[in-house]
User: Fold these one by one.
Assistant:
Number 1:
Amino acid sequence: YRMLSSKQRKFLKSKAHHLKPVAWIGDNGLTEQTISEIKYQLEIHELIKIKCSNSVIKKTVQDSIYTQTDALSVGNIGNIFILYKPDPINPRMIIPQN
């Protein structure tokens, strides 16, 4: 499992600043449909935001999302968290190396 350096996280956070959340996780928690949508959005965009209805749900689903999507954690802003998963063949976003 690859980790991002602080420089890479800072770069990705700046790129994610203007993005709107592409998935919302409500009181029902994480569903297969939500995971499918997150995977699809990661394939298209590489960098996405997800919003949770409250912080308790965010804590319970966050690790599960990272595990199921193989995405990297960029950071959290309140009940929103940022995911990054570069395309292994043709990455669209070039991030700084360390």
Number 2:
Amino acid sequence: MNSMTASNPINTSEPEDVCFVDSSASNHMTSREDWFKQLQKAERPSYVETGDDTIHPIQHVGNVPFGEEGNQTYIKNVLHVLTITENLVSIGHILEQGMQVCFDDRGCFIEKEA
């Protein structure tokens, strides 16, 4: 098994760089365009609604590299939403991508089969 911590794709401790692993998120999403390896314009106007009942337009959809350098995988189908303030990783979508989400006393880890 390869293991990756679910903290952020870029190794910093800035609050805007933190990813929150969310069991209720319907999709992965971030406002950070610089995190994407592959990015495509949204095919048609689409929106996400956040927990505070605000509506946010989806700009792009793409893949974000995740994990330690040399042992990266991609979080697929991440929504690029300029107006959100938190970066969300959907537990449901991680499981659909064949990875596992594990919690222990050190934090949260995303694991994939080697």
Number 3:
Amino acid sequence: EGTPDEEITALIDEEPGIAVLVLGAGTDKKGPGPLVTSIAGKLSGKFPIPITVVPGNLTEEQIDALS
């Protein structure tokens, strides 16, 4: 229960093994999506772990090449 950004933050606080948060950005003209906007935007300076935002238009091959 709660907002997605609050729940993700709570989970990260509870699980010390989570070292980075990876978010997929939407490709809509309205922006990257509410979760990316909230966490990578408003909360980024206060977030307890690094945040990686992956462009939403990457192919599976491009994503594999990043790993």
